[in-house]
Amino acid sequence: MIKERLHKLRESMKAAGIDCYLIPTSDYHDSEYVSGFFRVRNYFSGFTGSAGTLVVSAEEAALFTDGRYFIQAGRELEGTGIRLMKMGEPGVPEVKEYLEQILKEGQTLGFDGRVIKAEDAEAYEKILEKKKGKLIWDKDLAEDIWKERPALVHHPVFLLKECYSGESAASKIDRVRAKMKEEGADIHILTTLDDIAWLLNIRGNDVENCPVVLAYGVVTEEKVLLFAEDEKNGDKDEIWPEEVRQYLKESGVELCPYDKFYQYVSEIHDKKVLLCKGRISCRLKKELSEAVKVIDKPNPTAAMKAVKNQVETENIRKAHIKDGVAVTRFMYWLKKNVGKIPMTEISAAKYLENLRKETEHFIEPSFETICAYGANGAIIHYSAQPQSCAEIRPEGLLMVDSGGHYMEGTTDITRTFVLGEVTPKMREHFTLVLRAMLQLKDTKFLKECRGVNLDIRAREIFWEKGLDYKHGTGHGVGYLLNVHEGPNGFRWKILHDYKDSAVFEEGMVTTDEPGIYIEGSHGIRLENELLCRKGEENEYGQFMYFEDLTYVPIDLDGVDLSGMEEIDKRRLNKYHREVYEKLAPYFEGEELAWLKNATREV
Total domain count for the chain? Predict the structure, then answer.
């Protein structure tokens, strides 16, 4: 099937005069997760992971992805003839280097410029200049080949009231305009969906598991233009309820048709435009007049929304208590029933989702639950499928990475559960992961530190043993927005495509999630969310620390106490005391007795 699709793609490439075609994982807004309409890379490669780029030429096809997906991609690409390019591994070129290697003199590179970043397109153009080649940036070749392609859908929008957002849209717009003035800009163009949703206090469901609205935004000195689908089946209120329309109007926001955005861009002349080339599309950049002066800077909203205000932080704490109760009840159910009732990865994930659904103000999962039993846990971003998911038995390990969107915020938690007999090596690895997670969250540091300064607090536990994990130690989390949000994160090296090395500020929420993954055997990850807080200030500067947001027991059945130092035990005991204090009011009887034992001192 994949070979047939690639054959049709190559025929279309030939007809369009394209020698090499590039398909990223993206939509028109540089989103990490995309709706069905945009899963073109998945369609032509069969690879279902959320990150990767497919490059197709007449001679070969190559799929580039990162360490989270090496095992998964290897399995899904088998038999397709597509070459797996393991990004970051020795001897593996980056996409740009690969194109430079395979493109011959005078050849043509093509892509849909609406889903390629302007910054990347400029790099490709430089390669083609050297090769005396040509760039064709306006071809969506899937259009005629993918006959059953899902429609581009627009769902109803709702208002995130200020009792949740903590700040009016008008106030946020004023802050953006102040930043525009500082940069000398007349116009600011926003195409990233989470930035637009945050700025205007609106939420939707146009991307699965991301409560955002498909839209483009433009801020000028006088007004804000929001280019979005205005009506559905002729009903203006079906997508934009009157409450939302009125709020936007009072905030100085004018609704414009979604498909008129590029026309507006092409009509901008003699203005200074603030935008981020690393987040806008190639087409947007191409549509801008040469008379426009581009100020290429990060979107001001990115840093603003990362720092949660007091209302947001109080709400987030509430969301995590709700979520902690649901996940702890899942843990109790799992440990009590494994081996006694039929259980699969999918049925267990559904049980956890239903527990969340019982919670007040729950909206939807914040991403597709990763419920990985046994060897499947070694696939970092595993996705269980109905036809092949594993049966969960009373032995080994189950890793569950899940989260929820609530009106009070977004959660992301991973716990690895011991279901019966485990090997000494599994117990050793579980203890290493636990020690790393505890050590990072207990860090005290001076302001101006970034994630690249602090990642070592978790990773050194592994490096001392000659081990590592192929993902960042943590990422920022949005407020009822994207579960992966920059610009804060923990990573041991700076990567061009990951804008997550910002200075930590009070109010930033970041995950702490080290792990270990042994192909064919097991995977272990433990994850808490942390809130950055100010500590003492003295002659050495402003000290910072992390407050736990996540409160769910660590499975003590996986801990090898002989592998823990006294400070590790103190940290674990302190955390478990807090878990019990926070959650005990929501449990009673047998469940409460179990919780007491699950958080016992070691």
Answer: 3
